[in-house]
Amino acid sequence: MKALGIAFSARKNGNCAKLLQYCLDNLKKQGFESELIEAYDFQITPCSHCNYECFSGKCPIKDDVPLLYEKATKADVLIFAVLTYGGHASALYRAFCERGQAVFKTYEEWNDFAKKLNFIVVGNLSSSGDMALHEVLHGIVTSDYWPEAILISSSEYLRSSIKGDLIEEDEIKARINRFAGRIIQKMG
After folding, report:
1. Pick from 70, 136, 138: which is nearest to 102 by CA?
2. Residue 151 pairs with which residues in a beta bridge?
3. Where are the domains of the chain?
4. C-alpha radius of gyration, the chain, whole number
């Protein structure tokens, strides 16, 4: 089984990537093949300057989004780590999602993809981390699946989100371990 994690942060090797890597390492110990991708390393362009060519499956934008979706559709488990900026899920994540209109041809294809999704959202309640969590969940809910999701707040652990060291907190490691365990349980 393959687990793919994508860190949707504008910062290389920050909290999203480190939390995600810890989770993927946990899954690897359970026999999963795993891969971490940082959106930082890819060109992700939002929808713009088009005439809805996506509805015919031919997005005019040339960037790395099709490659990322190709990798994601081949995985058995997807874990997206999404940072909160300005009270919303990161723009990299939102741009990636909106571009999915050109990827999925049927509701069944989208539903199969959505059933693989799980989320680690990094954001403080004071900066609307809870709203960003709601935003990512609301965007993918299907009638027959609910993703695993956790919200990690640096202020809850008296840490600065800027340092990228949340994974050093034992309680956060325990939460990620339980999160990975729920993903594995759903796969069984």
Report:
1. 70
2. 121
3. 2-187
4. 16
